[in-house]
Amino acid sequence: MALVLLTAMNFVNYLDRYILPAVQEQVKGEFHLSDERIGSLTFWFFVAYIASAPLTGWLGDRFPRKPMIVAAGLGIAAMNFFTASVHGYMSLNLRHAALGVVEASFGIFAPALLADYFAEKSRNAAMTIFNVAIPVGAAMGYLVGGNIAASHGWRMAFIASAIPGAVIALLILLLMREPPRVVVQENARVDKASVFSLLTNKAYLGSILGYAAVTFSLGGISWWMPSFLHRMDGRDIGAAGTIMGGITVVCGLGGTVAGGLWAQRWLKTNDKALYFVPAISAALAVTPAVLCFFGPKSLTLPMLGLAVFLIFLGTGPVNAATLNAVPANLRASAMAGQLFIIHIFGDMPSPKLIGWISDHSNLRWGLGSTLIAMLIAAVIFGVGARYAPKLHQSAEPASAA
Q1: Distance CA 339, CA 374 (A)
Q2: In total, how many domains does the chain have?
Q3: Taking 60 as the threshold, does the pLDDT of residue 397 lie above it?
Q4: CB neighbours (10 Å) of residue 283?
């Protein structure tokens, strides 16, 4: 029940997040904005997002998470309803920043709660299912946002997205129970020293820093790709949203499931699989992405689909790697740290950077400039694999360690 409801809420979370990229060409036209200022909307979203992460991590390790998840779900719905009354760039920025606070809360509490339901060896499967909502939700954000905006304007797209979030939050309140916390040692406490110990945890750092490099590229590309299809491929806003939605749900979902299954099978013989899968996925995604941005038009969509599939191979395993690298009593703090790092070094600066480069050259070079981060991610994951912890319930005997 918890896995189903939290996955559904994660779906709505990403649906809401990807409506703005789908409708930003209309927003840009109404408010007469440059690409850099459009990119700044995401920048301030993540400023609020990461600023709230330390507090939400502290709360999640000390208090029941279910009521805070419900509050976050209702907050996400409320922020989208409020968008209908926005009539200025600054108001839209403030509303987007507020959305970042409630999305950060859910993104920290939900994985930490799920980790108490699943053992280490099955946690990758649970995180893969939970993260299936990322490509599906993003796809629906593109699809719903683009098509509703084309027919009813961009404000109506946000109103439509608010309703399912409120419904799922109420279902969580009524149907989901708070699990008992799993503590790996007696008298385990969450104090300043234990939280700061994460800074010397090499397995944890390898996971979150590699993920940050992937997020730098993926976050910027996913934000600007509907605009790329509109400007460079000649699609109208509805068609661009439909194409991005279709590619994201088919290729992103396929990549997430394939990567999770691959890592789960590989884990039977190698405890480093949760690092190797995202390393391979990041390295392989670069070539099709380059062909998508700079190749002939006939390759744009097939190469986009292949790049999305390859990038999403690592989504489930990298989150499982983060949770497995830390003690049970630090999971919420660890997820808060992950969210802080992947956004402050990842998709907080990249959309604004892409917009700045686009204003001074074109969108192709803006998008292509981020791909070097994918290669850096592959290296970081490879180094992090050296410190991957030995998992319990391993198929190999303990004496082989």
Answers
A1: 18
A2: 1
A3: no
A4: 17
The CATH number of whichever domain residue 119 belongs to comes to 1.20.1250.20
Nearest-5° angle of CA 143, CA 356, CA 292?
A: 50
Look at residue 115 and tell me whether its pLDDT is greater than 90: no
Averaged confidence pLDDT in the chain: 84
Instruction: Please give the average per-residue pLDDT across 303-311, as a whole number.
Output: 93
246 class by beta-carbon count within 10 Å (0-12 exposed, 13-18 middle, 19+ buried): middle
The pLDDT confidence band at residue 289, using thresholds 50, 70 and 90, is very high
CA distance 190 to 167: 34
Map residue 32 onto helix, strand or coil: coil
**Kindly report the CA angle at 363 between 354 and 101, in degrees rounded to 5?**
35
pLDDT of residue 279: 95
For the cut 80, the answer to whether the pLDDT of residue 49 exceeds it is no
| Residue found under tokens 């299912």 | 129
How crowded is residue 231: how many other Cβ atoms within 10 Å of its Cβ?
Answer: 16
* Position 57 in a domain: yes
Q: Is the pLDDT of residue 395 over 50?
A: no
What is the rounded average pLDDT of the residues 66-85?
86
Q: Which residue has the tokens 């954000």?
A: 141
Cα distances (angstroms) measured from residue 370 to each of 142, 216, 244, 283, 324: 21, 7, 19, 13, 29
In a domain, 318, yes or no: yes
DSSP 178: P
Residue 190, domain member (yes or no): no
Residue bearing tokens 């949760």: 274
The pTM of this model reads 0.69
Output the pLDDT for position 383.
94
Domain, as residue range, for 386: 2-176+195-392
Burial 37-73 (b: 16+ CB within 10 A, else e): bbbbbbbbbbbbbbebbbebbbbbbeeebbebbbbbb
- Residue ranges of alpha helices (H) inside 116-236 are 120-152, 154-175, 192-196, 202-231
